[in-house]
């Protein structure tokens, strides 16, 4: 497979994954979660806390990386990473006005004239 199609083969099952750089990031998430998902009782609770801390730090990426990470997680079928990344997007947009949401999301549409600029999930 050449570099021009921007895909890599994941594992032995040959699942095509777009954006090799973000595949590496997604793979790091999967490896950490796989390593800490085992155990029972107190060990499992300790691992759960460690994973929460890891996730909080892991998901603090720029908007472009976040979008590509969602795409890679979707292609890979990593529900936990999709949920984590989508929650990050929701947190970023919470309480923002439509114009701010569009800027944050990189959407270049304009509110029609006379239209309201509603606030989402805010007070």
UniProtKB/TrEMBL annotation:
Which keywords annotate this record? Ubl conjugation pathway
Pathways involved = Protein modification; protein ubiquitination
Single GO BP term: protein ubiquitination
Q: Which residues form the SKP1 component dimerisation domain?
A: 79-109
Q: What assembly does the database describe for this protein?
A: Part of a SCF (SKP1-cullin-F-box) protein ligase complex.
Where on the tree of life does the source sit, at the highest rank? Answer: Eukaryota
Give the start-end ranges of region Disordered.
101-123
Task: Fetch the SUPFAM superfamilies from UniProt.
Answer: Skp1 dimerisation domain-like
**Pfam families to which the protein is assigned, alphabetical:** Skp1 (PF01466)
Source lineage? Eukaryota, Viridiplantae, Streptophyta, Embryophyta, Tracheophyta
Species per Swiss-Prot/TrEMBL record: Oryza glumipatula
Protein name, UniProt field? SKP1-like protein
Stated family? Belongs to the SKP1 family.
Function (record text): Involved in ubiquitination and subsequent proteasomal degradation of target proteins. Together with CUL1, RBX1 and a F-box protein, it forms a SCF E3 ubiquitin ligase complex. The functional specificity of this complex depends on the type of F-box protein. In the SCF complex, it serves as an adapter that links the F-box protein to CUL1.
């Amino acid at each position: 497979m050449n570099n021009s199609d921007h895909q890599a083969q994941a594992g032995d099952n040959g699942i095509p994954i777009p954006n090799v750089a973000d595949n590496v990031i997604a793979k790091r998430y999967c490896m950490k979660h796989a390593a800490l998902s085992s155990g029972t009782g107190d060990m499992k609770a300790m691992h759960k806390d460690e994973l929460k801390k890891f996730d909080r730090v892991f998901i603090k990426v720029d908007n472009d990386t976040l979008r590509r990470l969602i795409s890679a997680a979707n292609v890979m079928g990593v529900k936990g990473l999709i949920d984590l990344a989508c929650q990050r997007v929701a947190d970023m947009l919470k309480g923002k006005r439509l114009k701010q949401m569009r800027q944050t999301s990189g959407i270049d549409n304009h509110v029609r004239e006379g239209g309201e600029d509603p606030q989402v999930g805010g007070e």
